[in-house]
Write the structure tokens for this entry.
Amino acid sequence: MSMFDTIEEFVKPLLIIPLKSYQKIMAYTQLADGEITQFADISYDREKNAFVMGEVYLLKQEAGSAHVEMDEQIIADFNLQLIKQGVAQLPRCWIHSHVEMDTFFSGIDTDTIDQLVNESFTIAIVVNKSKKMRALLRLWQPFVLTIDDLPIQVDYGYEKIPKALHDEVKKKVKGQKSY
């Protein structure tokens, strides 16, 4: 069975980042002097036609102003630990920063993405200290396909503002319209 049932689903998937994950990504990015690399769990929600981010992970790394180096053994140990915990899928999202530069995928970034091949997909995200983000989706099966500039939506936890918040504003803020 294909990940996408229709061409519309294929053309316009979305990346949803829960607020907690977004805050963690941005905190790591702000705290690092140079570039930083992170990984995250990603699942596909067919109903929403969206890739949804889960837990964000930071591994030991050596970072400079324009590069990050990670020991392959650290990555292997991390993956083994997840497998021992019984995870169904290893992290499919690679996140890295460009510090103060714009958000784009460099040749080195593309080479790194090529090394993340698996049986389904990879999401790559580049962020900067200005909180700009750019995402890319790489489908590996049934053929390799890249969708750059994947739309990103930060999920603030609710689609409709809770009634309690409406009531609180109405009670405490004069001059507000009624809802």
